Hints:
The structure holds two protein chains of two kinds.
Chain A: E1 2-10, E2 24-30, E3 41-45, E4 55-60, H1 62-66, E5 77-82, E6 85-87
Parallel strand pairs in A: 3-5
Antiparallel strand pairs in A: 1-2, 1-4, 2-3, 4-5
Chain B: E1 2-11, E2 24-30, E3 36-45, E4 54-59, H1 61-67, E5 77-82
Parallel strand pairs in B: 3-5
Antiparallel strand pairs in B: 1-2, 1-4, 2-3, 4-5
Amino acid sequence: MLLGRVIGAVVPCVVCEGLDGTPMLLVQPLDMAGSPKGRTVVAADSTRMAGPGEIVYYESGREAALALEPAFVPVDHAIVGIVDGLHVPGREPAP
Amino acid sequence: MILGRVAGAIHSTINHPFYNARKLLVVEKIDPEGLPAGDYLIAVDVVGAGVGERVLVLDEGNGARQVLSSSDGPVRSVVVGIIDHVELTRQAS
């Protein structure tokens, strides 16, 4: 899993079977200190509660689909949690 | 498995049910000499590792789910060991 910041939402008009109603969020991957690193990804939100500006952790690859219900859906990134506190001594993220 | 150093911890209340009451660590990847490899990952801790400790991280989904006794958890990375020391045998080049 990696850290990311939600920077927006994607609203699809047609999706594959099993993805109906799944929130799709734009996520900017972050490094340990909370600074942007790498290219933006679109992630399905399994918590259904993540919003713009929040720091989240997301799973990628095969495991991402397991976060959703039903499990065998075509996604490659899924948000599995919203970060309340990130404690990395010496590398505190910007609020 | 890969080598890492625990850089910190993550606290979260809103999460996928699989992650309820699981301890998440921020693990910085390191090379065998212990120098940062420039990358990190977030892993579930099952051994009680603390910040600063060198750890062994399993980064494969099926093994991770087996360790966590789950058949369908959305997980891939698990801290499965705390490293005492690494012995490196230098090859003559």
